[in-house]
Amino acid sequence: MSKVKPKKHLGQHFLKNIEIAETIVNSLTQHGSYSTVLEIGPGMGVLTQFLIKNTTFKTWVAEIDKESIHYLKNHFPEITNRIIEGDFLKMSLNLYFKNNPIAIIGNFPYNISSQILFKVYENKNQVTEVVGMFQKEVAQRIASKPGNKEYGILSVLMQAYYHIEYLFTVNENEFYPPPKVKSGVLRLCRNQTHTLPCNEILFKKVVKTAFNQRRKTLRNSLKTLLPQEIVSLSIFNKRPEQLSVEEFVSITEMIS
Question: How far is the C-alpha of 226 from the C-alpha of 204, rounded, in Å?
Fold first, then answer.
């Protein structure tokens, strides 16, 4: 088998540029907090070929495409026993990695990239680093700071637990088939926050409720959650994109 046929329903766009692939892999900080790297959607192994050269960690891959799995087994026999066949979104990380810290890397399919990050969020105490390719707009949104129109639910949730850097942009013609949009590479490194000083389930609900009506002030968007005694506070005159992570934490504490 020479090549894997890209499948539209899986959102496959294979990176052609070897130098960019190597740069993405080298963007892992390798600060010693993990000894396992999980690549999501390796396709034909454009990142895998560089990952397996690094002996400071073991490379695992998660792939749902049967054709890609066959290709990987033929071209990278050294990781045959570390290919997880199936959907990353349905995977139990504990099943494969126990409670050991891991890093995640990948040219993520655009149609599930936000869901991948929500899964990272749910496993934030195990996933210490993420380096990934996203649709550029999504990457900018995740890295966006308060006050920008791109700032949203994923920005707040991920920035609560990760330092986020937008590394570089990749043009459409670097892929086969070329996507209709530019791509952006992000690095997320776990920060020092182990747990938030508030109810995390309520925090997530407050963030989602606020941004689901982002044009309204918090007084209106959160009215079903706000106790009467705090509804007149000036912070509720703001819109959600104006609030920092710390302010969302503070509001959650007030409500609870």
Answer: 15
pTM: 0.94
Question: 8-190 adopts what CATH topology?
Answer: Rossmann fold (3.40.50)
* 200-255 to CATH, choices 1.10.8.100, 1.10.10.10, 3.30.479.30, 1.10.230.10: 1.10.8.100
> pLDDT digit string (tens) for 49-75?
999 999 999 999 999 999 999 999 999
